[in-house]
Specification:
Blueprint: H1 6-23, E1 26-32, H2 40-63, H3 70-93, H4 95-98, H5 104-121, E2 132-138, E3 143-148, H6 150-153, H7 158-173, H8 177-194, E4 213-214
Parallel strand pairs: 1-2, 1-4
Antiparallel strand pairs: 2-3
Helix pairs in contact: 1-8, 2-3, 7-8
């Protein structure tokens, strides 16, 4: 996965502070490499690689039946296993290849669960007004999840949060993680200010740091 630079991190953190100053809401941005370990993906790749190699061996057998010897069968068996092993290793090493074996629904569910777990484990619910908003990017899945606390949940609909996510997704797929986060924060600021969110003179202190969180893979 591509890590963002120190300069890009500083740009994102300045954007977080700007949105908080404009809206009075406490924003937390986070990046995780993967939302789940997905141990089944290499095995799915192995099955595909072995199947395609076996199909190729069958085609060659039909075209050249005179090759059907005991030695040839051994070579074919080893080739099928090797084809599966290569595909399985590729799924472990190459994220874009592994994503071919991950369904969109599974990716969305795992990213949502990871974001909600992060919200709880980091105790983002501990703000005085319950006004925290978590924006989590899961790099492997190319997913963005926004988890608002109760203060914002009643004022902004799920469809409106998805509009923010839609601004980020194309940039994330292009591996422009910092740009995606800044675009999302800009869209979030426009959304919240349009909803009447503004800093309050008697607002509680900022109990959540503006630091970009870095998660770890499961």
């Amino acid at each position: 996965m591509r890590s963002i630079s120190a300069d890009e991190t500083a740009t994102v953190e300045r954007a977080i502070a700007r949105v908080e100053a404009a809206t009075g809401v406490q924003i937390v941005a986070a990046i995780v490499p993967k939302s789940d370990a997905y141990p089944e993906l290499p095995w799915r790749a192995f099955a595909l690689g072995a199947s395609l190699t076996g199909l190729l061996a069958l085609v060659l057998d039909v075209m050249r039946p005179d090759w059907l010897t005991a030695q040839a069968l051994l070579v074919q068996t080893l080739a099928i296993l090797a084809g599966g092993a290569i595909a399985g290793l590729a799924a472990m090493r190459i994220a874009s290849f592994a994503r071919l074996f991950l369904g969109a629904q599974r990716a969305s569910v795992e990213a949502r669960q990871c974001a909600e777990s992060l919200f709880l484990t980091r105790e983002l619910f501990a703000t005085p007004r319950r006004d925290a908003v978590l924006m989590m990017v899961s790099e492997f899945e190319h997913r963005v999840v926004i988890v608002p606390d109760v203060y914002c949940r009643g004022k902004v609909t799920s469809a409106e949060w998805e509009g923010v996510v839609a601004r980020m997704t194309p940039l994330l797929r292009a591996a422009k993680i910092a740009d995606a986060l800044v675009a999302g924060l800009d869209a979030m600021q426009a959304l919240l200010t349009g909803k009447g969110f503004a800093p309050s003179p008697d607002a509680a202190p900022n109990v959540l740091a503006d630091t970009l969180l870095r998660g770890t893979s499961p």
